[in-house]
Please model this.
Amino acid sequence: MKPTKIAEGVYDVGVLDWNIRDFHGYSTNRGTSYNAFLVIDEKIALIDTVKAPFADQLISNISQVIDPKKIDVVISNHTEMDHTGSLPRVMNLIGETKPLYCSKMGAKNLAGHFPNAWNYHPVKDGEELSLGKRTLTFMETRMIHWPDSMFTYLNEDHILFSSDGFGQHYAGFEKFDDQADADLMPQAKKYYANILMLYAPRILKLVEKVVASGIQIDMICPDHGILWRKDPGKIINAYLQWSRQEPEEKAIVIYDTMWKSTETMANAIAEGISSTGVKAKPIHLRSSDRSDIMTDVLDAAAIVVGSPTLNNQMFPTMADFLTYMKGLKPENKIGGAFGSYGWSGESVKLVAAELTAMKFKMIESGPRLQYVPDAQGIEACAAYGRKIGEAVKAK
Amino acid sequence: MDKYVCTLCGYVYDPEAGDPDNDVEPGTSWEDVPDEWECPVCGAGKDDFEKEE
Model:
C-alpha cells in the first residue's frame, strides 16, 4: 500500500493485512488494516503505528512522504499491539528521546509492554499540542476499549483520529466510505458487537459529550478499515443506535447438536417464533463463528439457546459461546433455554442459569426432550417458540 | 468493611488496602473514599462501582 493523502498535509501511512482471518478469536473474513497517520506542519506528528510484522511497510510508507527522522512527536492513542507493535522500530529510527504523547493510563500501559525508557508525555483530557499552524486536541476515552484509549482531534481540519472507535476489520483497495462496498456497515456493526458492546453506556456518554461540545467533525479516521469522510454522521448515529441496544423484532435460536435432536428442536422453535410474525434465525454453533453470532445478538430481542447434555454438562462449544457472550454484556434481552438429552439432561438448567446471570428475562419452561423428539415434543417446541414470539412483540 | 467492584473494568476496591497511590489510605471504608476519586485502572467514577456480592 502507498500512503494516501487524506487532507492537505495529512497522510494515512498505515498498512493492509489482507490475509488475517483470526484476530484474537474474532473472525476477520475481510482481513483488516492498521491505519497510522502523519500530520505535516512546522512540527511533524505520527499518530499511532502498526502491528510489528508490518513495521517495514510503515517506515516505507512514511519515507514516501518525508524522511522518517524528521518526525518530531509520536502520539499513541491506544496501547494494544496492533497499534504499538512498530513503536520500538519507529522510535529507534527517529530518536528514542523524541516525545511520545499518550494518556496517563497509556504511559503506564506502554511501560507494561515495552522495556524502553521512552520520553512519555501523558496528556489530560482536552489538552492541546501545537504543531505550528495546526493544533491537536487529546480526548480521553477510557475503557473504549482499554484504560489507555484516547482520541486525537486535528482542530483546523476537523479530523478525528478515533483509534479503535468507529473502526472495521476491512481490507480493501478503497480508503474512504464513499468508495467502500456494501460490506462496510455490516463489518462496522460486527466490530462494535465484538469489541465495544460491553461499553455501550460509556459510548453513549462519550458521544453525548462530543455532540454537546459542538466540535465539527468532517472526517473520522479509525485505526482499522475505511475512513469516514462522506458521512461521518452515519457511523456516529449507528453507534448511538447500537449503544442504546434497542432490539429489532428478531429472535435467534443458537444451538449445537450431536444426533440432530437439539437441531430438530431448534428448527421447530424458530418456526414457532416465525408463526407470530417475528423474524427468527436458527444458528448452528459449529457452522458459525462466535464473532458473527454476536453481530446477530446485538439487535436481537430474544436469544434462545439449545444444548444437548454431554457427560452431565452442556455441550462444550456452548460453554465457549456463553462465556464469550457474557463478557460482551448484551442488555435488554429475552432469554430461553432448551435441549435434548439421553439419560441425565442437565444442560437446559445449566444454560438457563448462565442466561439468568446475564440478566436475560427468561421465558419458562424451555423444552427438555429425551433422545429423539416425537410429534408431541416437536409441538411443545413450536409452542415454546410462539410464547417467545409473543414476548418479543409485547416488548 | 465491604469491597466494591468497578462495573466497567472489574477492579475491586478493598478498604483494607485502600489506594495509597491516589491518596486513599489503607483502612478507608468505601463511604469515606472521596467523591472525586477515580478507578485507578480505568478512570470510572464512584457511581460506576457496585458492592461485591
Remarks:
- Chain A touches chain B through seven residues (CB under 8 Å).
